[in-house]
Design goal:
There is one protein chain. This protein is α/β, with parallel strands linked by helices and 450 residues long. The chain has a single domain, classed as TIM Barrel (Alpha-Beta Barrel). Helices cover 42% and strands 13% of the residues. The protein has 14 helices and 14 strands. The strands form four sheets. The protein has an eight-stranded parallel β-barrel with strand order 1-2-5-8-9-10-11-14, surrounded by four helices. Strands 3-4 form a two-stranded antiparallel ribbon. The structure holds phosphoenolpyruvate and cobalt (II) ion. The site of cobalt (II) ion has 5 residues, from loops.
């Protein structure tokens, strides 16, 4: 049996550690950080190389229009909110949305949770000032605590290890829910029927009835519904904290290649996608399917160089651009990027994040978004791709299964004054359960009309 030489890949990974890395915490205790990193290095992988390879194939199918990707979950997961009920309700929301989108797109929906690792946040300022007191900004539960005290805001490397355990427990439950019968299409459809029986949602009744008919037709044809009791479900997070991602990056014994085993799909955010920085270097060295966020500020030349770096083989499914342009900007800013990338021969997957270009502060002082802007950006994204003859591959949504009041609008008509009722996000506002389903029905309608 030949042994695979992994010296080069490991040396490359180690060399990347010397590159400038934006948005990293200033860990006050170097020895404690080294201990935490060493501990993570000894822990088992959270996901397996083979699963990442499957997701890469699914992303490739989405780039050709043969699948549609739904990525969804919290802006920032927290340790306190990693409870069974919260995880169940988030998975349930994604399954419900996926069922509706499957009908709309007439292709399989690839389900990806922004979950089990979404514990670190980039911040526009490294400090926060309240009533004259300035403290380090909250950077996610894997770094510090949201509470506004000097002790809580001090970065604590033990949190990296806690983040691993919280992710592991979350993933364990997600695997149980999606493999143990909870994802049965018949239940999911029943939950969706519950949604449309609410009078406010009557306009979605036609789609629910169409799905009903399709299910009866399938049953009459002898479809094996028992085979649909389980579903594939993948985990994604922003690969921000390199002190977490690097020790969980492992050599796959089959191929000798590196995989970030902290999650199936790893994305690089708008603030850390520096071509010469440590984040892009890191993702270029691992085999996971990779996402890169692009705002309207992204320069097409830079985007082409990014493809050369992260996807030099032009491998379908390897690279996904998650565009987050803003409802008023997407129709102007997206076409030049898509045109240049398409002309270069690259085969990327295009996903729409209609959340991060549409954030503003409400009159009542909350960071929020309008449901209508979210829908409008999705509409613009579809129109641009339709106009160019390219493929809109999926959606990336900040959502929760709970009835929070963080985004304005939707059929419950959440207003500025309502935001204070149940605003629980420690970072960006999420669509609540109802708004998420409403989005899925509206998008299914957009897809179905084409
Ligand atoms: C996020 O996804 O929460 C985020 C910070 O996004 P972006 O990098 O696009 O700003
Ligand atoms: Co966010």
């Amino acid at each position: 049996m030949s042994t695979i030489d992994t010296t080069d890949v490991l040396a490359g990974l180690a060399a990347g550690a010397d590159l400038p890395a934006a948005q990293q915490p200033e860990w006050p205790d170097r020895a404690a950080l080294d201990r935490a990193v060493e501990t993570l290095r000894t822990y088992p992988p959270l996901v397996f190389a083979g699963e990442c390879d499957v997701l890469r194939e699914r992303m490739a199918a989405a780039s050709r229009g043969e699948a549609f990707v739904l990525q969804g979950g919290d802006c920032a997961e927290t340790f306190a909110a990693a409870t069974a009920n919260n995880i169940r309700d988030r998975v349930k929301t994604i399954l419900q949305m996926a069922a509706v989108l499957t009908y709309g797109a007439s292709v399989p929906v690839v389900k990806v949770g922004r979950m089990a690792g979404q514990y670190a946040k980039p911040r526009s300022s490294s400090t926060e000032t309240r009533e004259g007191v300035t403290l380090p900004a909250y950077r996610g539960d894997m770094v510090n605590d949201f509470e506004f005290t000097p002790e809580s805001r001090l970065p604590d490397p033990d949190r990296l290890v806690r983040g691993y355990h919280a992710s592991s427990a979350t993933l364990n439950l997600v695997r149980a829910f999606t493999q143990g019968g909870f994802a049965d299409l018949r239940y999911v459809h029943e939950w969706n029927r519950g949604f449309v029986t609410n009078a406010a949602n009557a306009r979605y009744d036609r789609i629910a009835r169409d799905i009903d008919k399709a299910m009866k037709f399938m049953a009459a044809c002898g479809a094996d519904f028992d085979a649909m009791r389980t579903t594939e479900f993948f985990a994604a997070h922003e690969g921000l904290l390199l002190d977490y991602e690097r020790p969980l990056t492992r050599v796959d014994s089959r191929t000798g290649q590196l995989y970030d085993t902290a999650g199936h799909f790893i994305w690089v955010g708008e603030r850390t996608r520096d071509l010469d920085g440590a984040h892009i270097d890191f993702v270029s060295r691992v085999r996971n399917p990779i996402g890169i966020k692009l705002s309207a500020k992204a320069d097409p030349e830079m985007v082409l160089r990014m493809i050369d770096k992260v996807d030099p083989e032009r491998e379908p499914g390897r690279l996904t651009f998650i565009t987050r342009m803003g409802a008023g900007t997407v129709r102007d800013a997206l076409p030049p990027l898509v045109e240049r990338v398409t002309a270069s021969g690259a085969q990327v997957t295009w996903i729409c994040d209609p959340m991060h270009g549409n954030t503003f502060e409400s009159t009542t002082g909350y960071k929020t978004r309008r449901f209508d802007d979210v829908i409008e950006e999705v509409r613009g994204f579809f129109d641009v791709h339709q106009g160019l003859g390219t493929v809109p591959g999926g959606l990336h949504i900040e959502l929760t299964g709970n009835d929070v009041t963080e985004c304005l609008g939707g059929f419950e008509r959440i207003s500025d004054e309502d935001l204070s009722q149940r605003y629980e996000s420690v970072c960006d506002p999420r669509l609540n359960h109802q708004q998420s389903l409403e989005l899925a029905f509206l998008v299914a309608d957009m897809l179905n009309r084409d």
